[in-house]
Amino acid sequence: MLSPSASDKEAFITAVAEAAAAVAASYSDSSAFSGMDPYALREEIAGLPFLPEEGIGWDEALRRVKETILPHMLRTWSPSYMPHLHSPALIESIAAEVIIAAFNSSMDSWDQGPAATEIEVKTVNELCTLFGYSGGDGVFTSGGSQSNISAAVCARDWWIGRNGGWDVKKKGLPDTWRRLRMYASGISHFSFDKAAHLMGLGYDAVVKLPIDSRCAIDTEEAERIIERDKADGYLPFMIAATIGTTDFGSIDDIAELRRIADRHGMYLHADAAYGSGAILSSYASRIGDLSLADSITVDFHKMFLLPISASALLVRDSSVLDAFQLHADYLNREEDEEDGYINLVGKSMQTTRRFDALKVCISFMMRGRNGYREMMDRAIGNAEHFYGRISSDSSFIAPVAPSLSSVVFAIDSDDETNKRIRRRLLSEGIVIGQTVFQGRTMLKFTLLNPALTHEHIDGLIERIKELAEELR
Ligand SMILES: Cc1ncc(COP(=O)(O)O)c(C=O)c1O
After folding, report:
1. What is the pLDDT of residues 288-327, one digit of tens each?
2. Distance in Å, CA 142 to ligand 1 centroid
3. Which of 158, 203, 220, 223 shows the greatest Cβ crowding within 10 Å of its Cβ?
4. The domain 368-471: what is its CATH number?
5. Ligand 1 and 141: CB distance under 6 A
């Protein structure tokens, strides 16, 4: 255990240095994955001791990790890794994780993290300013899903407060309000379905809106559907705009959705888990004015290149976070607040919570706007390069021009060939995405890694074409 004793400090420094050296040594080529098949990997991992009678000690444990685990870890920093919104981590933010783990602060009460609480409060305030919320508030969460689910809870309580009020915290939903409905793009993230389930409304309460040719919500149709539902006695309470859909990176029209939400007395949430990073890029105008939304999901473990987990829910009006306010004698005493001790537990669905704000604080401070702009511009520019190449090549289909850093495409052949191409690339240590669009199997590049070059992308295009010939 880390303590002030000289030997514990020495052991800490040695263990961290040896772990860092082992990670660096495990990365001996540019591939993203060893290519080992799942059965062989499972068998290899099965040989690791779990809870031996006598522990094997750090040196031996590290040896096993180096031998059995690290060679088959997925290397997010590889230029051959591009299947998901799953980023490589900036070096300073990995060092920040050491600080976070060493102090093991918890964000629920000031006395479990004095500096940590003050840093999260400052970071949230600065983020509110960055996204145009003057006087807003927010909270760090475990990820975009938790941010979206929290937003749905805030939206429901906000709507209930404006529509006669009801003690939903204590009594749950009255029968009539089981007709509450939320609206999101047909290609929105499934965390809204999870939110509906968790809130006792069920998946049917999430009305999936049709999308246009750019894969953004068709706003005319959206309003028609909301009006139809109101006429049928449903209670539309929230629209979720997606600012960067998971597959396409497509962006809903926040200004138009704001107008619709206002006309129908609805809450507007912006799920910018993916697209929020673009605010620091030269392409910021593409995401629209997110301050028009009542709340925003910002994921730092996607475009911002910080280690998992790092996300925030920002809210325009701090009172909506009252949805999570709950008094516990042992944590958030009233006299604490009066004397300036901030207990963040009242803003979150979590109790014990990581000090993820430190990663944002360190990376933002170190790199500044210009450093981030350069990285974001490279990611978005790479997607434009890739799309430019394949949209002028008749071997490929690429239905939607990228708004952010993702491109969905297929080799102009049958679904099986596309699937086999992805599997073969995986065995070569190249990991790309696969999804379905309009019933057809598609491949996907999610280009978050700023170290990726046009030459590398061009090489991959050629490799995919070769495989298509071979596997057709
Ligand atoms: C648009 C969007 N929203 C929310 C999420 C969920 O974020 P997380 O994986 O951090 O929970 C994702 C995940 O990819 C996403 O693409």
Report:
1. 999 999 999 999 999 999 999 999 999 999 999 999 999 8
2. 11
3. 158
4. 3.90.1150.10
5. no
